[in-house]
Amino acid sequence: MVALLASATTVLVISFTGGRPAMVSAAAGSMVLVMATLIKNHGIEYMIAATILTGVLQLLLGYLGIQKLMKFIPKTVMFGFVNALAILIFLAQVQQLPGQSLATYAMVITSIGLMYLLPKITRVVPPALIVIIVMTIISLFFFEILKKHWRLR
What pLDDT, in 10s, does the model give residues 67-81? Predict the structure, then answer.
């Protein structure tokens, strides 16, 4: 939940302060890997301070033009970093699955399946966006059914 809040805050700040077209601004996945240990050991107050410090450092590095040095980092290093990050995020999320309902497993499998199938159908809209919209609609639909079911009893 903290990572989602941090992601939403990041999106809002970038929306109001400007950005670049197609800029990726939701860093919840990478930040949660660092923040989880920080919050566990020191509390939420340190997370807020660390998030502010991270923003200040990013602004400072941006104004200094450090992004020009990115051309010296090989693409294989960047791909390795992103892939390792994806594996760590997956391992952190998969721990939440044991003990969940069959509907949860069905939604996870459907989401993964759509992520692989949608690029073969269309590349106009990003598959992740379609999956988020479809799974949100499905979950809201089932929530309404469950809410009506519980009211009847």
Answer: 888 889 898 998 888
